[in-house]
Amino acid sequence: MTDSQAPARADRRAEIAAGLARVRSRIADACAAAGRDRAEVTMIAVTKTYPASDVVTLVGLGVTDVGENRDQEAATKAAQVAAAGVAPRWHFVGRLQRNKVKSVLRYADVVQSVDSVRLASALDAGVTAIGRDRPLDVLVQVSIDGDAARGGAVPDSADPDAGLGAVTEAVAAAGGLRLAGLMAVAPLGWEPERAFARLAAIAALVRADHPQATELSAGMSGDLEAAIGHGATHVRVGSALLGMRPTLR
Ligand SMILES: *Cc1c(COP(=O)(O)O)cnc(C)c1O
Q1: Where would you tag: which of 92, 134, 198, 200 has the fewest CB atoms within 10 A of its CB?
Q2: Ranges for the Alanine racemase N-terminal domain (predicted)?
Q3: Rg of the chain over all Cα atoms, to the nearest angstrom
């Protein structure tokens, strides 16, 4: 580090600390409003487009969980963060191609975006191939509006690859995977309240068949209150913590 970089780094730390304080108080307020215990909700800092140094800063401020949505960026960043001596829990939250499974398994503790039987099988095979000592935590991504084109397994669909029932069964049956719960993004143009109410109903149905699927990852910078109101156990927050990203991705 040169002298000229030091003030910028201190500023960045203050900026992140302020963002974190705001998000933490929003989560606490939303829990209070919903009559929920604050300890039921984990914040995942989504650090895509931001550097490894921001992840290290977040961990220094008490953040335990980090999310990324692109393998190439995440693999590099996770290695840099590990080299800095900190070890957050890494969640992969983006669309995952089967040819990236091996790479993702090197750093991910949780994959939140499993939305097909084929992807579940590839992850299970990958876990076996690398000799992972315990099953990989998986959330099945749900398409709240049933539009499979934007990702997510489709509720009420008998599709053998992308139907929600088929995907949850495949994950639950895979020895290398643990079905931890569901993940979703509110569809564009939907009121968050309506989207997360529907998600909560879907989650209740999944839990009737798979009681272990207790986690619900829903809510981002713009709609975390509505998600917490409808039972989210994990909120995935990027821009409210770290600032607006230069490009939408
Ligand atoms: C980018 C991203 C987030 C965070 O979005 P913000 O609006 O910046 O909080 C959450 N979930 C997923 C899947 C993402 O890709």
Answers
A1: 134
A2: 40-246
A3: 18
pLDDT of residue 1: 47
Of 30, 96, 42, the closest CA to residue 237 belongs to 42
Handedness of CA 23, 27, 32, 37 (dihedral sign): negative
> Does residue 3 have a pLDDT over 60?
no
Superfamily of domain 10-242: Alanine racemase (3.20.20.10)
Domain ranges for the chain, please list them: 10-242
3-state secondary structure of 189: coil
Write out the DSSP string of 135-160.
PEEEEEEB-TT--GGGSSBBTT---T
CA distance 36 to 87: 29
185 lines ligand 1 (CB under 6 A): yes
Query: Quick one: pLDDT band at residue 245, thresholds 50, 70, 90?
Result: confident
Atom of ligand 1 nearest to the CA of 245: 8
Task: Give the start-end residues of each E strand in the chain.
Answer: 42-46, 65-68, 89-92, 110-114, 136-141, 177-183, 215-217, 234-237
* Index of the ligand 1 atom closest to the CA of residue 183: 13
pTM for this predicted structure: 0.95
Which bin fits 235, alpha (ψ -120 to 50), beta or left (φ > 0)?
A: beta
